[in-house]
Amino acid sequence: MITHLLACLVLMPAVACHAGDDDSRWYRGNTHTHTLWSDGDAPPEHAVKWYVDNDYDFLVLSDHNVMQQGERWFAITPDGRLDPTKVDALETTFGPDWVETRQVDDATEMRLRTLAELKTRFEAKGDFLLIPGEEVTDRYRLAEVHINALNLERTIDPQHGDSVEETIQNNLDAIAAQGVETGRSVLAHLNHPNFRGSLGVENLANMKGERFFEVYNGHRSVDNEGASAKHSTETLWDLALTRRLRDGAGDGAILFGLATDDAHDHYERDAVSVPGRGWIMVRSNSLQADAIVDAMKRGDFYASSGVFLEDIVVADDTMKITIKADPGVTYTTEFIGIMGSDDPETTKPRVLASTTANPAVHRFSGDELYVRARVVSDRPHPKPYAKGDFEQAWVQPVTVQGQP
Ligand SMILES: [Zn+2]
Ligand SMILES: [Zn+2]
Question: Which class would CATH give 2-72+112-399?
Fold first, then answer.
């Protein structure tokens, strides 16, 4: 196994390589959720508890341009985002001493719990991790530029720029700079590119130092499917990968895809953005923020909206995906990519092979610029982003061509 792993790392440095013989396991997490600290509808402890109770291992509270730090009070009002029934529910769940309120003139306010307090409450048993984060929320003219920053120490203000591309890059650079400065493993992921038709192929292609974007965001306003935008987010991914890997756009490096909730609505099962629609599974040997982020940077994770995988093994000549199959459910695995010899004018990335076998194995021809995989089940998503959605998983692309 060690031989295989070394061969894999040497042959495909951009590839997730798995020997499967260490202490690593899959950790389930969501990196995009909002609370009352910005425009979510729940106190942070209510949001966190849902993930704790629903088999997640880690969570990033990613409020807009703010981290859950310092003293912050929120008005309790019958018609506001924090109504008395939500406060009563907190007291029932967390105990009467948990809720802190104060009177300011005629208003009653509740103090929002900080990330440090939430960590004390939810991480005590060592089986759940809150990774500090922020959705750095910027725009250039009508284009929304939202980038999640994971494992930050302190807030990053939107950096702005004189074009969409510069706005993206300035924010990415500021996030990376904080990682260098603090010595933390910091990661940025570009969010919901089709939200308000904001970003296009070239924006994803030209990013430097960025390896991550949301191929699936559970908020119903973000247009993953590309109904109003030019391309679906999956097609954006393929076209940007082709530009980067074939033409050297950006820094010519691979781009990984995440699924996230972008949850704002924490009290309803069927609303615009609820928890539980999309997540990532990260293979790490510990539930520590640096380890989780480092595993993601190696590409050792997949995105899911319901399909779980046992294993992903990439060797020099094959990609093998073993699905954690449920009885009675059919899983179709599509291997997607493009050949180096394809005519760039006429041939786009496409499904290279499809199978319902488990494990699903694809043998490389050696000419592929990259190969990624999508596993689609025939089981409907229990909390669908769009009516008729099935549970899926997205396996990260690997580079093939040019490897010895
Ligand atoms: Zn956003
Ligand atoms: Zn968001």
Answer: alpha beta
Q: Where are the domains of the chain?
A: 2-72+112-399, 73-111
Instruction: Find the 111 Cα to ligand 2 centroid distance in Å.
Output: 22
Phi, psi at 55, each rounded to 5°? 65, 30
Question: If you average pLDDT over residues 173-194, what whole number do you get?
Answer: 98
How far is ligand 2, taken at its centre, from the CA of residue 139, in Å?
14
- Residue 403 Cα to ligand 2 midpoint, Å, equals 38
The ligand with the least distance to the CA atom of 62 is: 2
Provide the CA 236 distance to its chain's centre, in angstroms.
16
**pLDDT tens digits along 345-367:** 899 999 999 999 999 999 999 99
Q: 308-331, pLDDT tens digit by residue? A: 999 999 999 999 999 999 999 999
3-state secondary structure 317-380: CEEEEEECCCCCCCEEEEEEEEECCCCCCCCCCEEEEEECCCCEEEECCCCEEEEEEEEEEEEE
Please choose, from the candidates 198, 186, 56, 25, the residue with its C-alpha nearest in 3D space to the C-alpha of residue 122: 56
Residue 299 and residue 14 in contact, taking contact as beta carbons nearer than 8 Å: yes
Which ligand places an atom closest to the C-alpha of 190?
Answer: 1
Would the pLDDT of 162 be above 50? yes
Residue 60 alpha carbon to ligand 2 centre in Å: 11
Say if pTM beats, i.e. exceeds, 0.90: yes
CA 143 to centroid of ligand 2, rounded, Å: 15
3-state secondary structure of 64: strand
What's the pLDDT score for residue 310? Answer: 98
Q: What is the pLDDT of residue 402?
A: 57
User: Measured in angstroms, how far is the CA atom of residue 224 from the centroid of ligand 1?
Assistant: 13
DSSP, res 63: -
Kindly give the distance from the C-alpha atom of residue 125 to the centroid of ligand 1, in angstroms, as a whole number: 32
